[in-house]
Amino acid sequence: MTISRSLPNRDQLSSSASTSIEQFDWHAVRNDFPLLKQLVYGKPLAYLDNAATSQKPNVVFEAIEHYYRHDNANVHRGIYALSERATQAYEASRDKVQYFLNAASREEIVFVRGTTEAINLVAQSYARPRLTADDEILISAMEHHSNIVPWQIVCKQTGAKLKVVPITDSGEINLDDYQQLLSSRTRLVAITHMSNALGSIPPVQEMITLAHAQGIPVLLDGAQAIPHLKVNVQALDCDFYAFSGHKIYGPTGIGVLYGKQVILNAMPPYQGGGDMISQVSFDKTLYNDLPYKFEAGTPNIAGAIGLGAALDYVSSLGLDNIARREQQLLEYATQRLLSIKGLRIIGTAKHKASIISFVLNTAHPHDISSILDREGIAIRAGHHCAMPLMDRFKIPATARASLAFYNSNDDIDRLLLGMKEVDAIFG
Amino acid sequence: MNEELRELYQELIIDHGRHPRNFQILGNHTHCQKGYNPLCGDQLTLYLRIENDKVVDASFEGTGCAISVASASLMTEQIKGKTLAQAEKLFHDFHSFITDPEPSTTLQDCLGKLTVLGGVREFPGRIKCATLAWHTLKAGLAPSNHAKAVSTE
Predict the structure, then answer these.
(1) How far is CA A208 from the centre of its chain?
(2) Could you say which DSSP state residue B19 is in?
(3) Model-wide pTM > 0.90
(4) Which CATH class is domain B3-151?
(5) What is the pLDDT of residues A54-98, one digit of tens each?
(6) Where are the domains of chain A?
(7) Which residues of A touch B131 (CB under 8 A)?
(8) Which of A47, A278, A375, A387, by CA, is between 20 and 30 Å from B25?
(9) Which amino acids of A are annotated catalytic?
(10) Domain range list for chain B
(11) Element spanning A140, H or E
């Protein structure tokens, strides 16, 4: 087994396995997540809403608790042991993120509240000063509201226009359609790395190459992709990458904006306050260096530390192993769900991961979700913060089961049993 | 089947959810009000024909779950023939009935058929489904609020 820098191996975690998938005891891995052991309405919990938020392993609780019990102090300020330890732990998490994304430098890793704040930061600090009424921002038809609304706001502020790459009936982006919309007016492409409502993984590498050929920078919304796909920002050559800690087994309220150093350096601060300055007088203020220029105020220290522990945990399992495991679960769930009469899967892209959105011709997603809930099965029902996408498929909502490596075929079998209850009521 | 689910999805609700009554645009309506639940995307348009302070006809269109469609369907049945004051009282009675953990028998008697929606009390996340049509009605009857969509949030 290879042990990478600063990563604990499986033996140091509560369950034991090697990095080979055949030898992985995924059942034991599930034991790392105490929440999953509970009963809901007297039934074992089958948590299938991982695209909304993931459950957390013990190591994340322990890291956060250790920080608050032993190291709690403000960072980058105090000249005393506690503050130095807190700063060290906070900054160590930045190194972990850098390593996890394979960013060229730690200065390119900005801690934010989550993907939403990261995208808003880019919209206001990168796009707003550059945009004019002749310019365009290009997104896709399968974006989450958080990769639509910040651009609408900045378009309203500047007069720029929002252009939308269509998707096919299977939920894929056709590169020809994309190329047709890329133009000399396009100032930024902002695209999801994996659709939260469909699971589709767009051809981001090709999209970045095509954009860069015209000198257009690209932001990837990695909120969904981060726990499922290995992300290498240097290989992708994306200009920005945004993700949230809570989708990758870390705490809520912490996320990351990756930006290329040369671009971040040229951007004005997003918020003003403490820590983002180097010198302040009433006449003028000199801003701090990267990444602190974008981290005004006391940051979410415990959150960053928890995120670092989550990334260590994911790395110890190995994203390749996780992806293989989740692909097996996805195939099994897809095949089982398709055996249900009147069920239609929305989003059948060739490249997809971990998400199955479906509609039933007899029951509305909310009714499906209420019935499944009483069976201890948690799925999501609704528009998944992607209302334009629902309009595209002419449906008001979908039921969505989203998988993580700690799910099992048993969870999926229980989902199928739950669907029999739905049929008993609505069939 | 789970007892609470049985209580929620009574036959009358399934029937009205599947075959909603008064599910059409009312050609000669005097009032038209849109209602919307932004959390789940349910939306409906309520049409009323009001003459001499009386609801003489009511209909609706829209999309939603069984609870929200059944509630709208039952509501349009119940408000026909009611005076505006009676319709307003029905709104308050229904709202109390749905949100009060132990509604009085007097209240239940007033509501008649509508008590079939009482099962929703055990599903706090679904109360808005049951009340969407009713909030739409209330907004539609408010004199100053014509044409502005009402939201459950």
Answers:
(1) 19
(2) S
(3) yes
(4) alpha beta
(5) 999 999 999 999 999 999 999 998 889 999 999 999 999 999 999
(6) 10-56+318-426, 62-315
(7) none
(8) A387
(9) 385
(10) 3-151
(11) strand A136-140
Count CA within 13 A, CB hemisphere, residue B90. Answer: 25
Asked if B8's CB is within 8 angstroms of A382's CB, the reply is no
Q: Which residues pair with A240 in a beta bridge?
A: A219, A259
CA B135 distance to own-chain centroid: 8
Q: Residue A171: name the closest of A352, A398, A342 by CA.
A: A352
Identity of the residue numbered A334 = T
CB contact under 8 A, B5 and A421: yes
B5–A374: do the CB atoms touch at under 8 Å? yes
Q: Which residues of B touch A365 (CB under 8 A)?
A: 65
Determine whether the interchain pair B1/A425 forms a contact, defined as Cβ–Cβ distance below 8 Å.
yes
Nearest CA of chain B to the CA of A197: how many Å?
A: 14
The CATH H-level (homologous superfamily) assignment of domain A10-56+318-426 is Aspartate Aminotransferase, domain 1 (3.90.1150.10)
Interval B39-71: pLDDT, tens: 778 899 999 999 999 999 999 999 999 999 999
Domain A62-315 has CATH 3.40.640.10: yes
Residue A248 DSSP symbol? G
